[in-house]
Amino acid sequence: MAGQRREAALDIHDFDAVPLDQLRAGGGLKWRAFPDCIGAFVAEMDFGLAPPIAAALQQALARGQVGYLSPDLTRALAEACADWQRRHHGWEVPAEAIHAVPDVLGALEVVLRHYLPAATPVALPVPNYMPFIPLLRLLGHPVLEVPMRREDGAWVLDEAALEEAFARGARQLVLCNPHNPIGKVYGRDELARIAAIAARFDARVFADEIHAPIVYPGHRHVPYASVSEQAARQAITAVSASKAWNLAGLKCAQLVFTRDEDLALWRRIGLFAGHSTATPGVIAHTTAWREGDAWLARGLEYLEGNRALLGQLLRERLPQLHWIAPQGTYLAWLDCRALPLEMPPHAFFRRRARVALTDGAECGTGGEGHVRLNFAMPRPLLREAIERMAEAVASL
């Protein structure tokens, strides 16, 4: 209760009031990489720390708690994460099956190195999170891309293409849910069909659920491993509080094991695989899972307003751009192919509008001509970003 009382001091309208100079002074990649631009590329929010997390970190620093990670802290993290999954997703997973790693990308590397035979092809729905394709290739795993389809104003996984990827030798699916960069939230029936397809080929699933806390009304996150016993045996799940509570620089995520053999292997390799997890990150994540509900609820309300505002501004000021409003995440996938550009759209908007966006081509086949826009920013800045982009397009 104390954590919830501390949170009450922050009103949702405070998110509007974060000034641009404060964001730049914060020193993060989003505002320092392109200092003359509005940063809308890297996936983090501009709303600071939840008060309980800030207090927990300040107390840890006052105690000098920046040494090697201790077992009592990792136990507390696992218990807090398990409780969050139960309360928010109805997923009953024992704390003993949850283990700390530095981040979700590192978690995927652990899975590829230790849980998948060398050179095994991997199925990847595209567009997808930018580093996945180069990481898979760097580690020697051929990438079999599975293009997502637009159907009746929604994103749909091409299940026939997924089955074909497995038939061609893929033995692992990397499933990002909610799906970065398109914001799709997979329903239980969809996940059950994916599990059935994977079962026919004895394939595994790496479930990247880092954006799971950020789902909008009308949709519900369903953990892949909770769908069935079959899905649980296929899955190794990665979760983190980093996206929902602005903790990416503190280096902490969690791997959730739902297959006994996987957990047994982790007990042999975990000392090394999780070694770089940061003590302050574990403290921050534990506090987020335990005490961050009220702050997150206000943040989601604000993000839902930003999503609606973005849709309105696109209709009014940039009707040439097309999108499907995301069901989760704070990322918008914008189709710019109708614009008469002589350069990729991310380069055009960076040069002509001074808005920094993600290059859609980095997200896999079919991403050319698209950009990813992060709308987790103060509303006045979101308006300014779209206005700048509209003025740049009007000058063509």
Automatic annotation (TrEMBL):
<protein>
    <recommendedName>
        <fullName>cysteine-S-conjugate beta-lyase</fullName>
        <ecNumber>4.4.1.13</ecNumber>
    </recommendedName>
</protein>
<keyword id="KW-0808">Transferase</keyword>
<dbReference type="InterPro" id="IPR015421">
    <property type="entry name" value="PyrdxlP-dep_Trfase_major"/>
</dbReference>
<keyword id="KW-0032">Aminotransferase</keyword>
<dbReference type="GO" id="GO:0008483">
    <property type="term" value="F:transaminase activity"/>
</dbReference>
<feature type="domain" description="Aminotransferase class I/classII large">
    <location>
        <begin position="46"/>
        <end position="388"/>
    </location>
</feature>
<keyword id="KW-0663">Pyridoxal phosphate</keyword>
<dbReference type="InterPro" id="IPR004839">
    <property type="entry name" value="Aminotransferase_I/II_large"/>
</dbReference>
<dbReference type="InterPro" id="IPR015422">
    <property type="entry name" value="PyrdxlP-dep_Trfase_small"/>
</dbReference>
<dbReference type="InterPro" id="IPR051798">
    <property type="entry name" value="Class-II_PLP-Dep_Aminotrans"/>
</dbReference>
<dbReference type="Pfam" id="PF00155">
    <property type="entry name" value="Aminotran_1_2"/>
</dbReference>
<dbReference type="InterPro" id="IPR015424">
    <property type="entry name" value="PyrdxlP-dep_Trfase"/>
</dbReference>
<keyword id="KW-0456">Lyase</keyword>
<dbReference type="GO" id="GO:0030170">
    <property type="term" value="F:pyridoxal phosphate binding"/>
</dbReference>
<comment type="similarity">
    <text>Belongs to the class-II pyridoxal-phosphate-dependent aminotransferase family. MalY/PatB cystathionine beta-lyase subfamily.</text>
</comment>
<dbReference type="GO" id="GO:0047804">
    <property type="term" value="F:cysteine-S-conjugate beta-lyase activity"/>
</dbReference>
